[in-house]
Amino acid sequence: MKKFIKTGVALTAAAMLLSGCGDGLLVMNEAEEAIVVSYSAGALAKRNVYQPEGLTAVYEGEDDGEEDPVDTPTEPKESQEEPADGMEEDPVDTIEPEDGMDTEDAGAEGEASGAGDDASKAPETSDLAGALGLSGIQMSYTDYSVNGSYQQGDYYSLDANPGNTFVILNFNVTNNTAEDIQCDILSKQPIFTLEINGGTGVHNEVTVLANDLSTYHEAIGAGKTEAAILLFEVPEDVAGNISSLQLSVQADGGSNRLAIE
Question: Can you spell out the DSSP letters for 50-100?
Answer without folding.
Answer: T-TTSSS---TTPPTT-PPP-----PPPPSSPPPPTT--PPPPP-PPPPTT
